[in-house]
Amino acid sequence: MQDSASPKHKVNLEFIGLMASLMAIVALSIDALLPALPDIANDLNVTDVSKNQLLITMIFLGLGIGQLIFGPLSDSFGRKPIIYTGFILFVIASIVCVMTNSFEMMIFGRILQGVGLAAPRTISISMVRDTYSGDYMARVMSIVVMVFILVPVVAPTIGQFLITFFDWHSIFNLNLIYGCLVMFWFWKKQPETLPENKRTKLSVGLFVNGTKEFLKHQSAIVYTLISGFITGSFMVYLSTSQQIFEHQYKLADLFPYIFASLAISIGFATFLNSALVVRFGMKKIAKTAAIAFCAISIFYVILFHNGTNPDLSVLVMFFALQFIAIGFLFGNLRSLAMEPVGHIAGVGAAINGFVSTIMAVPIANFIGSYVTDSVLPLFIGFSVCGVISVLMMFLVKQKTASSIEETV
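Predicted structure:
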């Protein structure tokens, strides 16, 4: 597979739109629900505000588990049938969420939603890897993420609109309608990207052998772990943003617009990344972005170490800078981890997604538990995750350089 813009590698706008739309089902299921968290908690008799975070983090737990299941299956049965299977599970889980009167059952439904959504989320990445490679794959991934980011920009506003005129149940109904439309488009237009002669036979040892192969590639392991720390950092923001802006800053009405403006900063970064990655390479851009993420976090901690929240404009500026760095990291980290394991793209994407997500959930829950009356714990968490990520990036570079010298 070439690493240049050959005819085979020319940008296919419909393919990009489809992959982004598949991933967007996940974003819509998470972000549209943010304004409704207080309403859901009230209806389900939840008195502890911090428990609302579970409605966000638990869907990520399901995503992590589901990726481990659906990734290897897609290597054996093809990408499309597994995406359909995952979506059916998502439909069942959504019905559970709409029908329940129990917070515990709602959490179960959110986990099950995550398991089902893992199929389109993970396998869309595998389909990109089936079709592209190298820095050009990173470019396509950046464009997909850029389109995908448009959903968080508008999702909270849509959620706010729905709960204003209807109630929180309507958000789940919208997710189902959107998902059905995307599935129809996917069924009608997208060909299978994994031909039968390249599929691996399903066996007990399939995942074991795939894991052993994945573990042979140090860069895949390191960039997967870094993805876990960065994803965990971002998940803290997702799960606490409603609590920060509505309770700490008393800006419930403005929350959807603040959330949208910050999502735009990630979209802006991924747009720039799609233009710059072929020229500068994904390793250099990822390392620069990780250093920036780390430095911005530490700077905030130094300035506001006493725990007093800054003016809203200052906080939004710091968040925007952080998310620009994250925008450069997301697509490149995933592409760097997947680059050496293209021959086991399904298992590779499953392991990458599982490990990074399972790491991210406890990181988000732990840091989020301290975000009660100050934003400082969030930035302390950012700083720790950022420092670890930068150190690991330099470690993998050093080890790679050493291995090259030994070969020479």
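Summary: Confidence is low (pLDDT under 50) at residues 1-8, 400-408.
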